[in-house]
Amino acid sequence: MTPHTPDHIAKELVFDFDMYADPRFAEDLYPGLDAIMRDAPDVFWTPRNGGHWVVTRAAQVQEVVQDYEHFSVREMQIPRVANPPKFIPLSLDPPDNQAYRQALMPAFSPKAIRALEDKIRYWAKTIIAEVAGKGECDFVYDVTELFPVSIFMELMGMDLGRLREFRVLAEHFFASQNNEAEIQKSVGQIVGIMTEYIVAKQKSPDGSLISQLAQSQINGRPITMGELQNMCLLLFVGGLHTVTNLAGHAYGHLAEHPELQQTLASQPERIADFVEESIRMFGVINSPRIVAKDTERFGASFREGEMVLCMLPMASRDDRVNPHPAQFDLDRKQREVLTFSRGPHLCIGHFLARAEVRILTEEWVKQVPSFRLKPNGRREYALGGTSLGLKHLPLVW
Predict the structure, then answer these.
(1) Is residue 175 predicted with pLDDT exceeding 90?
(2) What is the per-residue pLDDT for 3?
(3) In the structure, what pLDDT confidence band is assigned to residue 170 with cuts at 50, 70 and 90?
(4) Average pLDDT over residues 122-144
(5) In Å, how far are 78, 127, 289, 314, 315 from 51, measured between CA atoms?
C-alpha cells in the first residue's frame, strides 16, 4: 500500500478498496457496498488505482459535491489520465456550467417530460409485449437495454437501427475507465458518431435535441462544435446507460419479492413509491472530483491534485439519514436520496429517469404481474468503477 499513500494521510484513514474490482462485490453488489460503509472510515484513502479518497456517508458526500471551490469536476477520471474526457456541463464548475445547463433544461423539465409520457408508454407497452408471451427473458438485454435507450435515441434524433451498436459503445466506455488507451479510443468513437449527427442536423434541422442544441446560444454567442461534441458525449454515455442499470437492479429485487409484485399489481398508485425507493436503494453512479485547493475536512487532509470518489449509491444507503437502509420500504417516512447528486451538478435527467421507471412498471405489472428469477440463473454485474452496471437478469413467469 505504501507507494500510493502520501505521508500526510493518517494510517487509520487508509482502507484497501478497489473501485473497479473489489472482492466485496463478488456475490452481491449492494450488500458489498453496505459492508464497506460498515467496515471503513466515513472518509478514507485507498492506495489502489493511483491512490484516491473515498467519501461514503450522506452528509460528507453532500458537502463535497456542493463545494466546488475545493472539490472540482474539471477532472473526473480515476486514476488520473493525461487527457481526461470532458463532459459539458458536467466537467465545468459554477458559474461556467450554468449556461449549458440552461440550454439543456427545456428538454428535461417536468413539463417536457409530461409531454413525452405517451411516447414513453408506447415504448414500454411495445417492448414488454415482445417478451410477455414467451414466459421468460433476460430483463437487461430484452427490456432495459431497449426501453430507455429507444426513448433517448428518439429524443436525440438518432437512428434506432443502431441501438445495440450504441449500447455496446456506452458499456465499453464505462468498462474502460482504468485503461487510458481504451478511454481515448472509446471517446473518439462516440465523438465521431455524434459529430456526424451534429453536422447532419445543422444542415437539416428536425426538432430533435441535437438539432435544438446546434441552434442554441451560450452567453449570447453561437455554440461551438467542440462544445456540442462534449455535450453530446455526456448525453450519449448518460442516456444509454443510467436508467438501464437502475431499472435492472430494481427489478432484480422485485423478482425476489412476490408480495411486492402483488402490491404493485393490485395497487398501481404505489408504483411511485416503488420508484422512489428503488432510486434510493439502487443508485448506479459514483461521482469523482479533484481537489482544487488544500483543505482540512472530516478529519482528513486533502491536498491539491488528489482525486476524490463520492459514493452516491452508498450515501443513499446511509443509516444515519435513512433508518434500516438495506430494507426496501414503500412506506418509508424518511427518505434521503443522493442518487442523482445535489447542488450545481444535480442530474438534469432525473425527471425523465423517474418517469421512465414509473411508466415501465405501470405497464409491466399489467402484462407480467408475477415473475421470479430463473432457476439457476444469476445476476451478472458489470462494474465500471463510476458505474454499477448489470449485464444480465434472467427472469421467468
Answers:
(1) no
(2) 52
(3) confident
(4) 97
(5) 9, 43, 13, 20, 21
Mean confidence (pLDDT) of the chain:
94
Q: Which three cell numbers stand for residue 318?
A: 446511509
Nearest to 101 by CA among 285, 290, 353, 349: 349
> Is the pLDDT at 2 greater than 80, yes or no?
no
| H helix or E strand, kind and range, residue 260 | helix 258-266
The one-character DSSP state at 295 is E
Q: Where are the beta strands (DSSP E) in the chain?
A: 43-46, 52-55, 71-72, 136-138, 217-218, 221-222, 287-291, 295-297, 300-302, 307-310, 372-373, 380-383, 388-392, 394-396
Architecture of domain 2-396: Orthogonal Bundle (1.10)
Radius of gyration from C-alpha coordinates of the chain:
21
Strand partners, 302: 295
For residue 193, which phi and psi values (nearest 5 degrees)? -65, -45
CB atoms within 10 A of CB 378: 12
Residue 289, φ and ψ in degrees, nearest 5: -140, 165
Kindly list the domain boundaries of the chain, sorted by start residue. Answer: 2-396
Over residues 82-97, the mean pLDDT reads 94
Cα distance between residue 266 and residue 369, in whole Å: 9
Closest C-alpha to 14, from 30, 29, 2 = 2
Q: Phi and psi dihedrals of 148, rounded to 5?
A: -65, -30
CA distance 397 to 373: 9
Stated pTM of the model: 0.93
DSSP notation for 2-61 = GGGS-TTS-GGGB----TTT-GGGSS-HHHHHHHHHHHS-SEEEE-STT-EEEE-SHHHH
Q: Are strands 307-310 and 388-392 parallel, antiparallel or unpaired?
A: unpaired
Residue 383 has pLDDT above 80, yes or no: no
What integer pLDDT is reported at residue 26 of this predicted model? 78
- Exposed e or buried b per residue across 116-145, where buried means at least 16 C-beta atoms within 10 angstroms of its C-beta: beeebeebbbebbeebbeeeebbbbbbbbb
